[in-house]
Amino acid sequence: MIEVRNLVKKYGQQTAVDHLNFTVEQGKIYGFLGPNGAGKSTTMNMITGYIASTEGEVYINGHNILEEPEKAKKCIGYLPEIPPIYPEMTVWEYLSFAAELKKIPKGEREKAICNVISQTKMEDMNHRLIRNLSKGYKQRVGLAQALLGYPEIIILDEPTVGLDPKQIIEIRDLIKGLSKRHTVILSSHILSEVSAVCDYVLIIDHGKLVASDTPDNLSKLMLGSNSLELTVKGQEEDIRKALDLVEHIEDAVFHNSPIENAHEITIKTTGQEDIRENIFFALADGKCPILKMQSTNMSLEDVFLKLTDDKEEENVSSL
Amino acid sequence: MLAVYKKELRGYLTSMIGYVFIAFVLAIVGVYFTAYNLTSAYPEFGVTLSAVSFVFLIITPVLTMRILAEEKKQRTDQLLFTAPVSVWKIVCGKYLGMVTILFIPMAIICTYPLIMGKYGTISYPMAYTAIFGFFLMGCGNIAVGLFLSSITESQIIAAVLTFAVLFICNVIQGIESFIAQTASASLISILIMAVILCLIIYRMTKDTLVTIIAGLVMAGTAIGLFLWKSSLFEGAIQKFMEIFNITGHFDGFVGGVLDMSGIVYMVSIILIFVFLTVQSIQKRRWS
């Protein structure tokens, strides 16, 4: 579908995108995640052919975006960071212009426009000047423009910015619905959005791809293995002795607990087996009552912060 | 291309700019037409048009300043340049939209010789040749404005630049007369231009060696030619500056001559500046 090879963009001395490689497959929703200024928009602008890359290639359905721009661009609907709308036009005029620009055949134009208008819930706004619309509606006009003609690939740069919570949920549902027939790439710095909507996450930072996987795998991957948090009453030695009998424990770290005579323990497990029952019986045999036991899973948020923080530390140390 | 053309046309005709443009051209031409041809009963319409050629200085920036600068500022160019339409089609659509707006007052002006014809004998071919030349000159000026609008994000800067460039083109005949016709004067002017060119090269390549080589080649060629045949340089700088004299190339039409060199000149101006506009947009995408 989309193949990005060795993509580099330099602005003078500044490297905005640094040797980016990834492939996008059909029928999935991809999330582009990164802190502000990570190079998300620049990458999207290069994929859509708005700006040229310094190095590297982008192939859309096998067409190079710079060599066969018209064929490649025909497969893409793009909503940039700032919706590209003309304030002096009405919603209908604007969408007609966009439809003509996208070479939708004359007979199908009206139907196509009606479709996207109803999909973005703007039926009442048809003949309003875009100038007079609120930010949320402007965003929806931009979104309608990107959906127009239902291109195979839909690229959305921060699609839910400026929308109210209800609209955000609507737009998310809309995007989810799109994945049945389209490939969607969306960028965001809102993590909950990405984990709620996307099948696949690409995390970039300082123009480099730091991770790419499904949201679930990413959480697992970052943890290395699952971990358990326990609060156990009893002497440290007794607890250790009891835990030694349990298999699949990689490491157990003891912390002080506010509760008297108790310890808080973080246990890292190897493998995928659930060892909570084994731990329970082992500690019961050792007469160490468990006050609390909880398995922890890193949320995408933690993964994101960890990945992007690590990068910064590396950069600082390299300076 | 048609989509952009229609959008521009509608944009001009649903906002003030198009009407201000049309009204201003008609008002100025109308005043001169009344004074020269109606009140004084002067039979040549071309002379009237020649007298109002300054109108383009004021009115071209009004028409062209927003054409690309505003798209860039509002980021609507992202829609245009990610659509499956090539850059030159977009530029041509915009250019033709502006030419159509210019065509509206010109069509009205075409009725003026008919009014004159009612009161006396006039040469229609002469009058319409002059109108044709006037229209071509307007198209040339619009092409210049189009290009200058593509190099900046600010409408004001685009307008001021367009006015300045067109003004210089308008008064270049006067500037020419400041410089002596002698060969050595031409040589000095050419050397100064070589220095400016070198500065531009340095600005673009940031490479001292290339700049020095380019400068030496240019200066060497000029001095070499001067030593070999200095008569080549007599009046050379005037000939060179004459290239920029857009209004001067309209003079042929004024007398009613369907001036081939004038037509070729105006069409070249249009093609060169439309081409440069496309290039300046492409360059921005690459840098």
From TrEMBL, chain A:
InterPro entries: AAA+_ATPase, ABC_transporter-like_ATP-bd, P-loop_NTPase. One of its GO terms (molecular function) is ATP binding. Gene3D superfamilies: P-loop containing nucleotide triphosphate hydrolases. Keywords: ATP-binding, Nucleotide-binding, Transport. The keyword ATP-binding applies. Residues 2-231 form the ABC transporter domain. Belongs to the ABC transporter superfamily. This is ABC-2 type transport system ATP-binding protein.
Automatic annotation (TrEMBL), chain B:
Signal peptide: none annotated. Keywords: Cell membrane, Membrane, Transmembrane, Transmembrane helix. The chain crosses the membrane at residues 12-33, 45-69, 95-115, 127-149, 156-175, 181-202, 209-228, 263-281. GO terms for cellular component: plasma membrane. The lineage of its organism: Bacteria, Bacillati, Bacillota, Clostridia, Eubacteriales. This is ABC-2 type transport system permease protein. The keyword Transmembrane applies. Its main location: membrane. It is found in: Cell membrane. It is a multi-pass membrane protein. It comes from Lactonifactor longoviformis DSM 17459.
